[in-house]
Design a protein that fits this description.
Mean pLDDT: 85
Number of domains: 3
Oligomer: single chain
CATH superfamily of the largest domain: PDZ domain
Strand content: 25-35%
CATH class of the largest domain: Mainly Beta
Number of helices: 7
Largest sheet: 7 strands, antiparallel
CATH architecture of the largest domain: Roll
Number of strands: 23
Radius of gyration: 31 Å
Distance between the termini: 103 Å
Shape: globular
Helix content: 10-25%
Low-confidence stretches: 6-10, 13-29, 198-206, 405-411
Order of helices and strands: HHEEEHEEEEEEEEEHEEHEHEEEEHEEEE
């Protein structure tokens, strides 16, 4: 019989080749114990406590900030009712405690034109809230709740002027209704602009951009709006306001209104229920794509590479009354029409700004209507000092003079 004979031959071959002691290949000469360890191999030991502590220091910092700040972060729920009294829509977001008088800070777009607002503290207590005031330009709103002062732990608002790209950014909020969620990242950009939420019930003219926006990469999603952006000391350096997304979910870029804008706006909302912004009445070509002063200096023979080049001045505006001039010549540069020949403003009150965003940030955060400011202006290579009295944006009127093209106009 052939089959038994083949088995006997195979057995003899295995013995001849010394394959009878079949074991897994260990890659070492030692034998393998039943627990998988190689006999004679060094046993790994835990790292010293000082190394573990150093590695965990960052997480200890974040845990500490969370423990200190999260009790101040609230859930905000705003309800819109249908004509029959049923709930038509519910907006959910975040906010934080501003003071022990019951003021809660959140986003204007979250609570504008709603029928009821509730605030839920981290301790799960729910309170009805009243909309005290909102400012659609900065996307900031102040709510009022009637809560015992000892239940409220205000956050401290820091300064955003010293914020740097690369520093840590910490967000606490309620994404998708998941309360007191923390995410971390870095400040990934500064000096961004966002279109302001069009005002539904204020006298502020539409079309202005919210300046000096902070860009972050910390994960934020629907429900995070209105939550604080914190630094490593636990100070509020911004308030989350928007994400850039094609599908409504976070895709790596989020935005926050800077603390310096909050420090300007919130006290006025509490005290006066509205915010008045300064207005000059000038028009500047949009600077993206290399059409700011730095990008046009060579083509136009400008003597500097910073500032704003006026393309128009609104008739009857503060700029018009101060004698500022818009451009008078249209040139084609890199395929775009550029209004040349206008005044070049390079400084305001001794502050030499880089571009339009810098100028608008200064106007928003440092000035009020009726303030008198000193402008340093270059006109046909002559340097002029021009005094200008700012007006309120609510008074914006008058046609734009010189090189006016509505599709490119940006009034400030």
């Amino acid at each position: 019989m052939r089959f038994p004979i083949l088995l006997i031959l195979c057995a003899q071959l295995l013995i001849a080749c010394n394959f009878t002691d079949l074991q897994p290949n260990t890659g070492a000469s030692g034998a393998i114990n039943l627990d998988g360890a190689v006999a004679g191999a060094p046993v790994p030991t835990a790292l010293p406590d000082e190394i573990v502590s150093a590695a965990d220091a960052e997480y200890q910092l974040l845990s500490n900030i969370y423990e200190r700040a999260s009790p101040s972060v609230v859930n905000v729920e705003a309800v819109i009712l249908a004509e029959d009294g049923s709930t038509s829509d519910t907006r959910r977001g975040s906010g934080f405690v501003y003071d022990q008088q019951g003021h809660i800070i959140t986003n204007a777009h979250l609570v504008n034109a709603v029928d009821s607002i509730t605030v839920t503290l981290q301790s799960a207590q729910v309170y009805a809230a009243q909309l005290l005031a909102l400012d659609s330009f900065s996307d900031l709103a102040v709510l009022q709740v009637s809560v015992e002062p000892e239940r409220l732990a205000p956050l401290r608002i820091g300064e955003s002027a010293t914020v740097m790209v690369g520093q840590r950014g910490i967000v606490i909020g309620n994404p998708f209704g998941l309360s007191s969620s923390m995410t971390t990242g870095v400040i990934s950009g500064l000096g961004r602009t966002l279109p302001s939420v069009e005002p539904a019930d204020s006298g502020i003219a539409p079309g202005f951009d919210n300046p000096s926006i902070i860009q972050i990469d910390a994960i934020i999603n629907p429900g995070n709006s209105g939550g604080p952006l914190l630094d490593s000391r636990g100070l509020v350096i911004g308030i989350t306001t928007a994400i850039r997304s094609d599908n409504g979910l976070f895709q790596g870029i989020g935005f926050a209104v800077p603390a310096d804008t909050m420090r300007r706006v919130i006290p006025e909302l509490i005290e006066r229920r509205r915010v008045d912004y300064s207005w000059m009445g000038i028009s500047v070509m949009r600077e993206d794509g290399g059409y700011g002063v730095a990008g046009l200096s060579d083509a136009l023979g400008l003597p500097v590479e910073r500032g704003v080049l006026l393309r128009g001045v609104s008739e009857g505006s503060p700029a018009y009354r101060a004698g500022l001039r818009g451009g008078d010549t249209i040139l084609e540069i890199r395929g775009e029409e550029v209004c040349a020949g206008g005044d070049l403003i390079v400084a305001i009150n001794g502050y030499h700004f880089q571009n339009l965003d810098d100028l608008v940030t200064y106007l928003v955060q440092q000035t009020r209507p009726d303030d008198e400011v000193e402008l340093l202006v270059i006109r046909e290579r002559r340097t002029l000092e021009i005094t200008l009295t700012l007006a309120s944006r609510a008074l914006e009127s008058g046609r734009m003079l010189n090189c006016h093209q509505a599709q490119q106009e940006r009034a400030h």
